[in-house]
Design goal:
By secondary structure, this protein is an alpha/beta fold. The protein folds into two domains: 2-198, NAD(P)-binding Rossmann-like Domain (Rossmann fold); 208-406, NAD(P)-binding Rossmann-like Domain (Rossmann fold). It is built from 14 helices and 14 strands. The protein has helices at residues 2-5, 7-10, 17-21, 34-45, 59-68, 103-116, 165-183, 216-227, 260-272, 302-314, 343-346, 349-353, 367-370, 377-395, and strands at residues 25-28, 49-53, 73-77, 95-98, 120-128, 131-139, 193-198, 208-212, 232-236, 277-279, 294-297, 318-324, 328-334, 403-406. The strands form two sheets. It has a seven-stranded mixed sheet with strand order 3-2-1-4-5-6-7. 49% of the residues are buried.
């Protein structure tokens, strides 16, 4: 059962699951979502032992972590990291993940990393001077660079701080990527990873959203939309859940054999009091999208992406298209108001497929059995978070840019 659950990441060349199995990870969190999102994703990846110091954790995300991975063990110490005497909590940890928002913890952990030669992965979202964004940096002894000043919070002691569930989704994916790299002896980013945009104003819009595809991207798009306060989503997917989905499709822990779209819709409704619906079917050129304000493309094949691009262009619909591989992802936005190219045109999908007008392919149920490509949770988190943030920017009157993320480059974004 466990081997089947992790099958898609075990297919990645050079993957060392034993390094994840044997690891012990220390996490310092705050009174927000970020640490809990990281814990859930780490559990799905097959990290079994986490010690976390944080005042609170999100019970939904932690409960999901425990259901995803039967081997998962978490020790939660309630409180803040405010004194070196707390080092004992993280005894024998391979690395420390610092997701806190107060300078005392940041400085103590950097000092601990230097003194004990333990990697410290720092991730935070921030709001400053009308700007919102995030920063991620992996510290190891010898990297005493000026960038360290940029990852220390200006507030020395715990207090209220900016938090954003969408940015947290992206941060947790990038931090988990570097966690995996350290444990497997692979390279981490040399750079301070930074993303920023103008502060979002509170939106009163209640758009009707169509999400095509309810797999890994669809799961995290759904979560990020829920954290943003959107209420009306229709999920469309013709496939059912299989065991090999569970290393990245986090809300399906008990739904093997059930409809992905129906399970995702129902689960988000139950967790967040939303008004979602589901369609257990394929998207094709005859699918009616007239009632939707925006379409999210979370599919896994070029033919459907072409059909989506052509439909949204014909009907002047905003289309936010995401795609991932085991080590990369992209987000491409089509806004009819800008009269730009569609995702299918920009990504050259017509040349790849070899013909212009095309129907989406019919196949057997259980998409992952049909197309057993390597896949992990991290790139899906990152792409999904950027997809939802791009939509929020559009609603705010900002102009989002296309995002290309590559975990193998030092400059990730």
């Amino acid at each position: 059962m466990r081997t089947s659950r992790l099958d898609r990441q075990l297919r990645i060349e050079g993957w060392n699951q034993q390094a994840l199995d044997d690891a012990k990870i220390g996490v310092v969190g705050d009174d927000d979502l970020l640490a809990s999102l990281y814990i859930m994703s780490a559990s799905a990846l097959g990290i079994n032992n986490i010690v976390v110091l944080a005042p609170v954790l999100n019970p939904i995300l932690v409960g999901t972590a425990k259901k995803l991975n039967p081997r998962f063990i978490m020790t939660h110490v309630e409180g803040f990291y405010t004194h070196p005497v707390m080092d004992e909590i993280f005894k024998e940890c391979n690395l420390i993940v610092d997701l806190s928002h107060y300078g005392l913890a940041n400085k103590l952990l950097l000092e601990k990393g230097y003194r004990e030669n333990i990697p410290v992965i720092r991730g935070l979202c921030y709001e400053n001077n009308g700007e919102q964004g995030f920063k991620v940096f992996t510290y190891m002894r010898g990297r005493e660079w000026q960038e360290l000043e940029q990852i220390v919070s200006p507030h020395n002691l715990p207090n209220g701080h900016f938090d954003d569930g969408v940015l947290d989704t992206i941060i947790s994916g990038i931090v988990l990527e570097d966690t995996k790299n350290i444990l497997m002896g692979q390279e981490v980013s040399d750079d301070l990873i930074v993303y920023n945009r103008r502060k979002l104003e509170q939106s009163k819009s209640r758009p009707h959203i169509l999400v095509i595809g309810s797999g890994a991207l669809g799961n995290f798009v759904g979560l990020a939309l829920a954290y943003s306060g959107f209420q009306r989503i229709t999920f469309m997917d013709p496939d059912v859940v299989e065991v090999t989905n569970l290393n990245r499709q986090v809300l399906f822990y008990d739904a093997v054999g059930k409809s992905k779209a129906e399970t995702l819709s129902m689960r988000l409704n139950n967790l967040f009091g939303m008004e979602n619906s589901a369609m257990f079917e394929y998207f094709n050129s005859d699918t009616d999208t007239a009632s939707y304000d925006v379409v999210f493309d979370c599919v896994d094949n070029h033919e459907t992406r072409i059909a989506l691009s052509e439909k949204c262009k014909d009907q002047d619909k905003v289309l936010i298209s995401g795609g991932t591989s085991a080590d990369a992802g992209q987000v491409v936005i089509y806004n009819p108001a800008d009269d730009g190219v569609t995702p299918a045109e920009l990504l050259g999908l017509y040349d790849i497929v070899g013909k212009r007008k095309i129907e989406t392919p019919r196949r057997e149920r259980a998409a992952c059995a049909y197309q057993p490509d390597p896949s992990v949770i991290m790139t899906n988190q990152v792409a999904a978070g950027f997809m939802v943030d791009s939509f929020r920017m559009l609603l705010d009157g900002q102009e989002p840019r296309n995002i290309f993320y590559n975990s193998n480059r030092s400059k990730r974004i």
